[in-house]
Amino acid sequence: MAKETNIYEIGYLLKATLKEEEILAFTEKLRNAVTEKHGLIISEGKTKKETLAYPIKKENNAFFSWIKFSISTETSAIKEIKKYLEKQNDVLRFLIMRATKEKQHKSVIKRERRAKPIFVKTEMPTKEISQKPTEVPEQKETPEDIKIKEEEIDKKIEELLGE
Known about the structure:
The protein is an alpha+beta fold. The chain has a domain at 5-99: Ribosomal protein S6/Translation elongation factor EF1B (Alpha-Beta Plaits, 2-Layer Sandwich). It is built from four helices and five strands. It has helices spanning 20-36, 77-87, 106-114, 143-161, and strands at residues 5-15, 40-44, 48-56, 59-72, 91-99. Strands 1, 2, 3, 4 and 5 form a five-stranded antiparallel beta sheet that branches. The protein is elongated, with a radius of gyration of 35 Å.
């Protein structure tokens, strides 16, 4: 008879004052704690520094990571892993969650097959489009327009300078 297993995920926050070697050592110890209880590691998250929304144990920043694994339901392994994490001084907070297996249910697959895109074909009225670009008549400035612009510019400059 095959052992029944559940999938769990542990998310944890470590103190931001830890060095990279200490973080790697903690991660390795957590992996060992899982595998000693005959757990199988499925995946892990990359450790990254996060700013916390609120202080936890007087810390405003922390390193966040997670680990996902499957373990037998017959043992008290999860309780032992929880006790191990509670004893660690560098862990600000952790959460152990029972995860679901990543399978699609039959009902989801059926709904995907039923969903068909609906296309409505409409005919656009055809209109003959001329190939010539429309010409915009050019507006030529007269010498009087240029003179008026110069006078306006001179007035603005005088106003700005306060002369």
